[in-house]
């Protein structure tokens, strides 16, 4: 576990916190990513993205009558993965929110390991949402995740629909951070010194997304400095075309 302490001046810390919370509030209030009165399962791995989302939603929920329920999913792919649930449970308890620890079995065969883990995770979260009557499942995908997804799909010969990538709201799946950059998430966690855990698979170059994140996109931005933003704009454009 790491605690992201801040070297920022108080004014800078306030700006980092305000920037992210405003972005989430606008996603909810202006774009309807979450609707007033919903019961929301907040999926939290303990990493920076989902911890920032949990903290921001806990602050924004009361005036919007959002009922939050925190969930951690253990994929049981690493020996120490179960301990991460304790960090998330503590974060939920600190905010006086209910918590459920889930564990899944990832299919041995099929698509990539990360895709299989995602499918198992989403199924477990959907089952929990059904059980508690939740109408939304909040996921912590950021604009950087969107850019990575679009690039991977574009280079693998994706269809126009696939290039639309992730939506801010698809059925019950809600992504309030989808227009927030990872740097702003990191600044938020640092400003508030939020305890988080680091998933080593995020830096494991055996996985395609890690190679795209740490090798391909930085190389691309040497030529096209606004590459990430352009990839997100491409997804938005495709979604508008598909939605007519």
Automatic annotation (TrEMBL):
UniProt keyword annotations, A-Z: ATP-binding, Cytoplasm, Ligase, Nucleotide-binding, tRNA processing
Entry-linked InterPro entries: Rossmann-like_a/b/a_fold, TilS/TtcA_N, tRNA_Ile_lys_synt, tRNA_Ile_lys_synt_N
Main location as per UniProt: cytoplasm
Residues reported to bind ATP: 45-50
Gene encoding the protein: tilS
Chain ranges of the tRNA(Ile)-lysidine/2-thiocytidine synthase N-terminal domain: 40-215
Name used for this protein in its record: tRNA(Ile)-lysidine synthase
Catalytic activity as recorded in UniProt: cytidine(34) in tRNA(Ile2) + L-lysine + ATP = lysidine(34) in tRNA(Ile2) + AMP + diphosphate + H(+)
Top-level class of the enzyme under EC nomenclature: ligase
Any one Gene Ontology molecular-function term assigned to this protein's record: tRNA(Ile)-lysidine synthase activity
Family to which this protein belongs: Belongs to the tRNA(Ile)-lysidine synthase family.
BP term (GO), one: tRNA modification
Enzyme Commission code(s) on record: 6.3.4.19
Pfam families given in the database record: ATP_bind_3
Superkingdom as given in the UniProt entry: Bacteria
Protein localization: Cytoplasm
Listed GO CC annotations: cytoplasm
Function comment: Ligates lysine onto the cytidine present at position 34 of the AUA codon-specific tRNA(Ile) that contains the anticodon CAU, in an ATP-dependent manner. Cytidine is converted to lysidine, thus changing the amino acid specificity of the tRNA from methionine to isoleucine.
Gene3D superfamilies, per the entry: HUPs
Notes on the domains: The N-terminal region contains the highly conserved SGGXDS motif, predicted to be a P-loop motif involved in ATP binding.
